[in-house]
Design goal:
Largest sheet: 10 strands, mixed
Number of helices: 12
Number of strands: 20
Strand content: 15-25%
Structural class: alpha/beta
Strand order of the largest sheet: 9-7-5-2-10-1-11-15-19-20
Shape: globular
Bound molecules: 6-O-phosphoryl inosine monophosphate, magnesium ion
Radius of gyration: 22 Å
Length: about 425
Amino acid sequence: MPVIAIIGGQWGDEGKGKVVDMLAEKAKMVIRFSGGDNAGHTVINPYGEFKLHLVPSGVFHPQTICIIGNGVAVNPAVLLEEIEQLQGIGVDTSRLFVSDRAHLIMPYHILLDALEEKQRGGKALGTTLKGVGPAFTDKVARRGIRAADLLDKEVLLARLRLVLEQKNTFLTRVHGAAPLSLEQVYSQYCQYGERLAHFIRETNSMVQETVEKGEMVLLEGAQGTMLDPDFGTYPYVTSSSPMVGGACVGSGLGPSKIDSIFGVFKAYSTRVGGGPMPTELEDETGELIRERAQEYGATTGRPRRCGWFDAVAARFSVQINGFTDIALTRLDILDILSSIKICVGYRLNGENIDYFPSSTAALEKCVPIYEELVGWQTPVDHIRSFEQLPPKAHRYVERLEELLSCPINLISVGSNREQAIIRPQATGLT
Ligand code: IMO
Ligand code: MG
């Protein structure tokens, strides 16, 4: 059985949660490998509807071990709340583990996220304000506090004393904010440590053993490739790598251990927060997609910006991740449209280009070049095989495959688990 990475191909919210929940039925393990509770993974299954922020979307399956990997930034309060909610409806959380190498989101990270956004004024990034950026900053700056530190009160106090002094200097002198009390933060995190003690452990041996045994393992991505700090629309990006490289580093599995890499793409585009989005529709079609698909942030409730499928950005995403397969989600949303556009190139400074510019200023100037396809205007939500798709929907999917040079082997046609088409050639699934 394979190791399959499930990676966001666009700007996040592509339906990674649904794909993981669906595939986890056969999986022994699901590992979240990056991001923090900025992620919002909507899962609809027989237990109900959930917006998971930290717990892997495989938690609903009784045989699946769920790991919050070393690459995730964990807010202990959010994790405890999520665990309680799941337990409250009878979901077994005894197979959930948190890597002791995972970094923690601290109260000053949340304060700094808001203060930094305020300072950016009109150039605000539109972060989720969960403290995720400042937490990853501290990880790289080597002043982070890790899950393991919660298990040793002396170590926690020593670490916190050192870090909080720096943070308080920064909070008070740079931002004119009130300092945080060492005693309060320490006692709060000691309590979290006590409550999370049996979840936190060295998870690497468990991960390696499961892979060695040839069991099916899913690597659950957060955010999307266009939000990657290296390849995304910098500085309008997140702070950990949502790409397959991030999956290796954030789970402790080398590239040779990964058998298939599924890029998850919506059949159109959305983005939440600031930054360029060439195919954004600020008209009634954009509004129609938003309302029909209920495109509102699962984490912040913000309306998502909606637009046509951007095949230039998507091709770039396929290349830099090396996707073996594509999972195309929410195809059913397009059912009602008489015409559907795909962006196949950009017009930049009077020239046609077919690549994704690295400069955000250039991307802001790009005008999409569209190809227009006739819509199928009939429901697809009941369809379970590729051949049964209406010919015009078939054509839309095939055109995307041609443009992206990657097979679309999984198609989601509705929010429920069973509303999907898995093609026989899907890598590692059949
Ligand atoms: P899932 O896992 C969509 C966006 C924020 C903002 C930028 C930086 O549900 O796909 P951050 O809080 O990370 O510092 O914000 O990244 N963002 C997401 N957009 N889906 C997500 O996660 C996102 N996580 C962060 O809106 O533009
Ligand atoms: Mg989401």
